[in-house]
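User: Batch of two.

Assistant: Item 1 of 2:
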Amino acid sequence: MNLLVSALLGYLLGSVPFAVIVSRAFRLADPRSFGSGNPGATNVLRSGNKLAALLTLVGDAAKGWLAMFIAAGVGADGTAIAVAGLAAFLGHVFPFTLHFRGGKGVATALGVLLGFSAALAGITAGIWLAVAAITRYSSLAALVAAAAAPVLAWWLLGTIEITVVVAVMCAVLIYRHKSNIRKLLAGSEGRIGGRKQG
């Protein structure tokens, strides 16, 4: 029952579409109507409103962390806590609130990593920031960070349970970036700060 409740809690939290909610609050265009069409912080940034993008980023990351925090607070075991985080990530990527067409999960994945370990989240975020700063490709930064995260999870925490959850999460994240991978290979991927390309 703990697993089921944790999974449901995580999924419901993950399904809260902060990109859409924040955009409406700031009277911006729906983030699904321009750029990459992705309801996430990077696409909200393409609206030109940095505060809205920041709030979206914080909200999406908080979903993953909060699901794990609540699960731990009600006495769930380690497995159930991990399931809550994974479910929050999947809720963001496949939210019932947006007809199962959600974001790519980068910020929510970071929140889940934070729920496991501040060091894990910090190093992974550092990798993302470094690649993004050098290349200005948000998608490439996400792909590199996703590839590194399971290795870092095993190195820092040394538990199969957490490593498997991180690996599954990152595999889904990479899959959700398949169109970006094609654009990167073709040289047509939009850079951070761009308004038109996805």
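Item 2 of 2:
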Amino acid sequence: MAKIAVESRELFNSKIKPYKDLVQKSFDKEKSILDLIVKDTSGIAYKKLLLTEEMMYVTTLQLIINNLSVEILGTKNTDALNEGRKALYKAIIYLEEIVTNQIDVPFSEYEAKVAEISNTPLEKRYFIVRKLGLAIRLILDAYGDNTKWKWSFVELQGRFTTVAKNLVDLKSAIKDYFDPRAPDYDNTVYYIRLIKKLLSESADGYRERYELSTRRIDDMRLAINYLLALRRITMLLNEKDEAEEIKKKALVWKDKMDSDQKKGVSK
């Protein structure tokens, strides 16, 4: 058995070497881009989009390493998964640096930031968001339901939701959403639907984390903020009935939060 274990470990190490080399190349590329940003401040937002994609690629490589561990050694590789999770955070941070991490604010407050990537087509932004969302889902699935990171993933998902929303030029998107002849019509409709779904899920995620884990008032406030951000989108889409239902839900949640505070059951 010991010999089999040694042989399996040697096979695993040989199989993952090419992927570890690719991970290192990605980090070397990241460093080069960051060094370039220091020397040349033009087009910083576009360079950070490249950094985002590079970090997503690192996560993909770490997922492959974990899959090989499961296949050859019969156990998940937590080191690879942790590195993949860290790369996802870096990807999201780069996006936050481009379009801010503001949740429930008028588009005008971050419009200038979005304008810095005006040459990046909506289709490309939608692709980045879907790819990042998939990477998060794959990491979550690889960790499994009993991971100690379960509740921290609520934050990861929430921050992803925020940048997914903020990457969109809402002025153009709302216009295209109602114009089937617009070149970006299909991508806009699908993207807006995704944003609404993500906002709803993040609101529920923070509410659940508040109720079942932290009892931190900040979590409940974030849950409400994601609801209000969703309401803001529905109002822009003139979905009055849905906007009213979301408003009522947010008020119920706020009453719950205020009541808990008075009872001293929240931190």
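The mean pLDDT is 96.
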